[in-house]
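Raw record, unedited: Palmitoyltransferase
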Amino acid sequence: MKIKSKSRKNDSSFAGLSSPLPGSYAATSKAISGPVQYKSRNWDDLAFVFFFVAVLGTFIFETSIVVPKIYSKDFHSSAGPVIHYITGFFILHNILGNFVQIIRHQSTIKGKLLLFSNQPSSSFSSKTSSANNQRYCFTCETYLPPRSYHCSSCGVCILKRDHHCTFARACIGYDNYRYFLALIFYISIGSLYVSILNMFFIWDLLGGFTFYNFMSHTFPFIFWLFGLLHWYSTMCCLISIINIAAFLFTTGLVFYHGSMVIANQTVHERAKSITDFDLGNWRSNVEQTFGSRWILTFISPIIYSKLPGNGKDFPSKRDYNLNSPKTK
Ligand SMILES: [Zn+2]
Ligand SMILES: [Zn+2]
C-alpha cells in the first residue's frame, strides 16, 4: 500500500529495495494485466501522420511525376523506369513493413511472467543497481529485469528498452529493435535515391542550376510568399528538401545505432558507459539484437529471425563464452 501511494507522484521512476530478494522471483501485477494505455500527445499524432504523408507522398510523386518526366523521351522503350519502379517498391515495402512491425512487436512486460534469477552477475550493472538492490517500477508494480525501463508515453515497462519512437508511437526494445534499424536504414537509402532522382528533375523544372534557383529550392516557402515561385514548383522543392533532410537525419541515426548494436548497448547504456552486455565480438553482439539470420532481416521485415534469450535474462561475456558451441 505504501508503494502505491508513492507511485502516483512519479510514474517513470524506480527505486531499489533494501530487502534482499529470494533466488528467483516471479512478478505478476494488477497494473500490467490490463490493456496498455498509450498517453497520446499532439506531437506524437502529428509525427505519426507526417510519416505516412511524407513516405506515400514521396513515392507517388517520384513514380507518377519525376520518373515519367526524366524518361519523357523513351518511357516505354527504356528499361530505366521499370528498374526505378521495382527498386521503389522494394524500398517502400521495407519502410512500411518495418514500421508496421515496430508497432506490432512492442516489447512491453504486459502479460509476461517476469521470472528471472537474482544473481550478482554482470547482468546487473554496478552503476545502476546491484543484485540485492533490484529496481522496482511503482507504476507497473513489479520488479524489473535488467535493461528494462518504464516509458511514461506507453504507460508500461519495456524489455531491453532503447527509446520511445515518436513517429511509430511505440517504444523500441527487445522485440522490435531489428525493425527499427532496418527502417532507418531504408529511409536513409530511399531518401538518397529519391534525392538523386530529384536533382535531374528539379533543376530542369527551375531552369538550370544557378545560385538563385539553389536558394529557391532550399527556401521554397519564402520564395512562394513573395510570389517568386509557382505553387507547383514550391511543392516539388519542398518534397526534395524533406528527403534531403531525411537522408541526413537517418544516416546519422544508422551510424549511431549501428555502433551501439556492435557493442550490444542501448541508448541508456551508451549514455551511462555501461558495457556489461558486450560479448566480446561484433557478430555475437549483432545476433543478440537481430537473431541468427541477421543478414536476412535487412532483405524483408517478414523474414523471421529468432532472437536469443527472452528479453529478461542476458548473458555476460564470460557466460556466453562458456556456453558457446566452440567451447563445448
Ligand atoms: Zn513500469
Ligand atoms: Zn514508449
